[in-house]
Amino acid sequence: MSGALLAAWSSNLRFKYTLYRIGLVTALVTTFSMGFTTNVVIWLVLRYLSGISSIAGLLLASGLVMNWLLRKGFKPQLGVHLIGLGLGIVVSGIAVGWMSGRLTWDQQWIGLAVLGLFFFVPAWLFMPQPEAIVFSSRQVQYPVPDRTWSILFNLMYFCAGFGFVISATYIVSILEASPFFEGRGSMVWIVVGAAAAPACTIWDKVAGRLGENRTLIYAFIVQTVSILLPVFSDSAWAGFASAILMSAWMGIVSLTLAIVGRIYPNDPARAMAKLTLSYGVAQIIAPAITGYLVTATGSYSSILVITAAIMGAGIGLLLVIERVQSRKDD
Predict the structure, then answer these.
(1) 214 half-sphere exposure, CB direction, 13 A CA radius
(2) Does the pLDDT value for residue 137 go beyond 50?
(3) What is the pTM of this model?
(4) Does the structural domain 2-130+143-329 have CATH classification 1.20.120.80?
């Protein structure tokens, strides 16, 4: 949430570009520093700074890429850009799986920082500097939505954030409780990343045929199914299906950020950041509720059912948004 606030703080694109680079350095330094202390307070500070740099980096990078796409006249879609997020999950999962049992905990942190350095270089060099967009007569300018649409869209993204944090944060713990995945947490994470990498481009193609709002509804449905599968079965097939279908969150994020990025082309990162605040609120509330329910019941089933219901509310909001939009078009 702090990262989203930071990304929304300024409308100066050059400043955002500088913040993006600061975020890259911060992410690398905080990861490396984790291996040199056992002080819990310092750990908390390092992880907080790392979290800020990660979410700010994601939003700022997405905004800068959207700015470049619009300036160059390309389709304003973020699917290809966000493939990197899925690949990052795969690489980190493989790295953690390999280092476990071979390196000590502090060596693992340093190893992850060294691995991150290989991705730092292209992320630093290849991000294009932003410029203000001047639309030509051939380029489509998207109307700024009214307050009702904005409120509904933010509420929808809150629901998406709740579903994401439960899926992404607890998927490994949930599946490791099943006989097949016990002690295979890194495998789960690799499957999640492998499914997430192509998910954005797939959902972009679906949106090209069905429209973005309708595609978001289907993505919500797919993720809801992935959330409910562990409730009804602890089998290996259900676990793999849940991890694979969970990749729908990538489609939700990609489509949502692309929508607001097109509406506010000269400062997409700021618009994305403001929207992500509702996502961030969900990421604060959901773990607190989860901790209480898991402690009280000894199971994740209740929070998974609640999360599925909240995702259902998100589907309802998308249907309302679709109706509101169709009335405006009429």
Answers:
(1) 8
(2) no
(3) 0.80
(4) no
